[in-house]
């Protein structure tokens, strides 16, 4: 694939903590410190070599205003240029890459984290809803996902029971991922069969977890010094849909399609089918299907075909966001996964992969979308 970028930037290191339903014996700073130190390990880079730090988190979930100020030491940002992005970490990675391509630095550290167990993520999502007509009626991430699911399934004549194939595949893949405390057998508990937002059950919803992820982005002259297998960032795109849920198309994600189109234009790709590895984020099973159709991995209404046995081996080999949704960090986790698989640092994913796509989503009802493409040689 080609790229229109005059300069190049690459992912030269990345790491995550284990993702758990609750890290009861670790503070935010502990999780962040672990991810940052492991991301730098093996690169030959020290914190002194990092020009800037960009982080993603939520004051609401952290329980205090300007919460990132309390984590500067853990992020290695003391006496450094530091910026906060109040959105999923994938947007922070785009910010960091843009700074490097613009010549504002040679090495950037991107950090995203969440301890959802210490708060109620549903309250967090509801604060993003319009406060006068949407929030008072109880609109949140779950109810928005249920409304989308009703319209999508009805339009394409899909039985809600077919969605089990999506959640089963996600949890089965997560069972083979040593960094996620999710086992496929957990879905046998009746708890996961309870309806959350008809027609969606708990097994259809992304499971909030605790954890942190860190990623090192470097300019080409640095990347070639620190690794013999840089993972180049070849394309980036982001877009936002209407704020009012009722004003959006209930059966597709045009913002995801627009974000992907921008990334494909930069990378020279035509659709997600051009990539060996695809890691996407979603708040629900139906949300995942809609993302896959928006980025061109399947035709409208046909994403369920990707979940037939043996299909799409490069799709969410990590398990994706359904078994482990690190709120504010899930998209960056997808980028870490793609970079690790392409860079030969992952125990899962297709062998011989050279190209990859990472997707992140934000906002209530997956209003915002970001796509980043990568390749290695």
TrEMBL record:
Span of domain Thiolase C-terminal: 242-372
One function term, GO molecular function aspect: acyltransferase activity, transferring groups other than amino-acyl groups
SUPFAM superfamilies: Thiolase-like (SSF53901)
UniProt name for this protein: Unannotated protein
Family annotation (Gene3D superfamilies): 3.40.47.10
Classification via CDD domains: SCP-x_thiolase (cd00829)
Pfam families: Thiolase_C_1 (PF22691)
InterPro entries: Thiolase, Thiolase-like, Thiolase_C_2
């Amino acid at each position: 694939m080609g790229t229109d970028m005059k300069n190049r930037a690459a992912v030269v290191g990345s790491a995550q903590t284990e993702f758990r339903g609750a890290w009861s014996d670790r503070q935010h700073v502990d999780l962040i410190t672990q991810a940052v130190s492991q991301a730098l390990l093996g690169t030959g880079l020290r914190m002194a070599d990092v020009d800037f730090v960009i982080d993603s988190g939520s004051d609401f979930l952290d329980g205090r205003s300007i919460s990132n100020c309390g984590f500067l030491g853990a992020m290695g940002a003391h006496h450094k240029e530091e910026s906060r992005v109040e959105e999923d970490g994938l947007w922070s990675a785009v910010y960091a890459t843009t700074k490097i391509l613009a010549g504002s630095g040679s090495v950037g550290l991107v950090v995203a984290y969440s301890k959802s167990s210490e708060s109620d993520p549903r309250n967090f999502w509801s604060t993003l809803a319009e406060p006068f007509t949407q929030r008072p009626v109880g609109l949140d991430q779950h109810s928005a996902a249920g409304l989308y699911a009703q319209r999508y399934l009805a339009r394409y004549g899909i039985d809600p029971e077919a969605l089990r194939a999506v959640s089963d595949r996600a949890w089965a893949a997560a069972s083979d991922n040593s960094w996620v405390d999710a086992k496929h057998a957990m879905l046998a508990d009746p708890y996961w069969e309870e309806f959350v937002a008809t027609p969606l059950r708990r097994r259809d919803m992304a499971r909030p977890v605790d954890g942190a992820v860190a990623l090192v982005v470097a300019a080409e002259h640095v990347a070639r010094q620190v690794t013999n297998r840089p993972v180049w960032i070849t394309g980036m795109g982001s877009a936002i849909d209407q704020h009012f849920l009722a004003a959006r198309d209930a059966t597709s994600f045009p913002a995801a399609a627009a974000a992907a189109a921008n990334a494909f234009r930069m990378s020279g790709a035509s659709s997600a089918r051009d990539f060996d590895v695809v890691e996407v984020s979603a708040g629900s099973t139906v949300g995942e299907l809609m993302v896959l159709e928006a980025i061109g991995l399947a035709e409208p209404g046909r994403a369920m075909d990707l979940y037939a046995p043996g299909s799409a081996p490069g799709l969410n080999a990590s398990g994706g966001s359904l078994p482990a949704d690190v709120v504010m960090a899930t998209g960056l986790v997808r980028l870490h996964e793609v970079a690790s698989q392409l860079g030969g640092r992952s125990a899962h994913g297709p062998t011989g992969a050279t190209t990859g796509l990472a997707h992140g989503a934000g906002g209530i009802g997956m209003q915002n979308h970001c796509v980043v493409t990568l390749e290695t040689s």
